Structure formats: C-alpha cells, structure tokens
Amino acid sequence: MSRTDFNTLLDAGVHFGHLKRKWNPKMAPYIFMEKNGIHIIDLHKTVVKLDEAAAALKQIAKSGRRVLFVATKKQAKEIVAEKVATVGMPYVTERWAGGMLTNFPTIRKAVKKMATIDKMLGDGTFDNFSKREKLQIARQRAKLEKNLGSIADLTRLPAALFVIDVQKEANAVKEAKRLSIPVFAMVDTCCDPTDIDYVIPANDDAAKSIATILDVVCAAIAEGTEERKLEKEKEAQEAEAAAPVRKEGKPRIKKAVRAAVDAEEATVAEVVAATETAEADKVEAPAEAE
Questions:
Q1: Coil, strand or helix: which one is 206?
Q2: Consecutive H or E run containing 228
Q3: First-to-last CA distance in the chain?
Q4: CB-based contacts of 151: which residues, under 8 Å, 6+ apart?
Q5: pLDDT reported for residue 272
Q6: Superfamily of domain 6-101+157-231
Q7: What's the pTM value of the predicted model, to 2 decimals?
Q8: Using CA atoms, how far apart are residues 191 and 27, in angstroms rounded to an integer?
Q9: How does residue 142 score in pLDDT terms, banded at 50, 70 and 90?
Q10: Strands 160-164 and 91-92
Q11: Residue 1: pLDDT above 50?
Q12: 285 to each of 106, 271, 273, 274, how far by Cα in Å?
C-alpha cells in the first residue's frame, strides 16, 4: 500500500516544475507535460519514488543510524526544523559548513567547544572573565549554536543525507558522494539527478510541497524507530525468560572450609564417643563390686 495519495500531492502543488527554458534534460523521464511554459512533474512516478525512499529511510532508522537533513533555503528552514526535530534526527538549516562531512573531526571539535562554554557557564568559571571576554565568548557560543546546534548529538557520520534543493546544496551532495553516503533528495525539473541515489521528483520551492514530502519521510522514520524500540523490548523479555533460575538450597562452601568443618565435626564425635564409653565403665564397676 502506498504511503501517500496522488491527490494529496496534487493539492500540495508537488507537480509544479520550473520554466521550460530552465529545465535540465536529465529530468525528462520525470516530466509529464508542459503547460503555459512550465513543466509538470509526473506525480505517478513521484508516488513510486517517494515510497521507495520512505522504505529505505525506515530501514535506516530501524537499524539505529542517523539521517542528516539539509535545507538552507528560506521557505524550507522552519518546516525542516519543526518536522525533523519530532523524529530526533539532525538537520542543517543555516549554512552548510565546508567539510562538515569530509572534515567531520574538526566539526566535532567545534561542537565540543560549545559544550565547554556551557560547562563554564554552569560551574561559575564564566564569572571570572572580564566584561569584554564574556561578550566575546557569548558571541562565539551564539554563532556555534546557530550553525551547529542542531547537529550537537551527531557523534559520527550520518548513514544518509536528505537534501531539499540539490542545486543550492551542491557542496553537501559532493561531500556525501565522496564518502559514499547515500543521498535522498527532492529534485525539481531544473536540477541534475545524476548524483542522487533516491530521487523524489517534486516541487522544492513551495512550502506546502516540502511539508507534504517531509510528512511522509518523517512518518517512515518514526515507524522505523518505533519498530527498533519494540524489537529491543522483545529481546530483553526473551533474554530474561531464557535466563536459568537458580535453585534455592544450601549456600556453597569452599572445599578448604568444608574440609575444616568436617574435621572438626569428626573430632567432636570422637570426644563424645570417648565420654559415653567412660560413663558406661563407671556404671559397670559398682555393679561388679556388689
């Protein structure tokens, strides 16, 4: 069953492409027709491609890996930040920092620097600085938060990249391809789909179109995350049920201690036997005397 409806995409304006004079010939397989100088995207192919992308993203989320969303264009920023945050995935909506993937260790250092500043604010070290130093540190913290705050919990390279507007985010796509990271993208009629692993032919300029596609994508990721959670709970229950139940009994005693106890018990038994023999001899002695 399809994850989305043809009419839903139609109502959102997903089918509107760019002007005919701005088209990329490589997008020809996804174009249905031209109307009033504007290319119309074939929504039947969009539905198929969107379902393929959603299924792949669900498997990535189910395996516990992360998907990095990239959308720095004005009409996509708030939509991506709102919807992607609900599924706990990292995103970039301000500026793609060069080397964010290919020079990932340096980016992690910048994120750790932000954490260090937060620590100084918490333990009171920040109060020891001068007014000018405080201002400089606060500005640096704000800049780091703006550019890297949304990827603060991304401790390793993402398993995939989801891009809105391939032309604008060309650097992100190049870095992902260099590291063999699969790229999912909304691709308009003016874009080149060659480097995109999962092409979703769609209008990447309209806010409603972007929101509709992200609803499907985020729902798939949420499903994968939920299934992973249920599988972990099931495994924990099975492991608990399979664990051997220890029988209640006498506590285990080491061999050396057991030998000492046995020897002491034997000695006591000998003393008791000797005492009983002596008392029996005393009783027999008077009887013989009479």
A1: coil
A2: helix 207-242
A3: 114
A4: 68, 90, 91, 92, 100, 107, 111
A5: 62
A6: Glucose-6-phosphate isomerase like protein; domain 1 (3.40.50.10490)
A7: 0.78
A8: 7
A9: confident
A10: unpaired
A11: no
A12: 103, 22, 19, 17
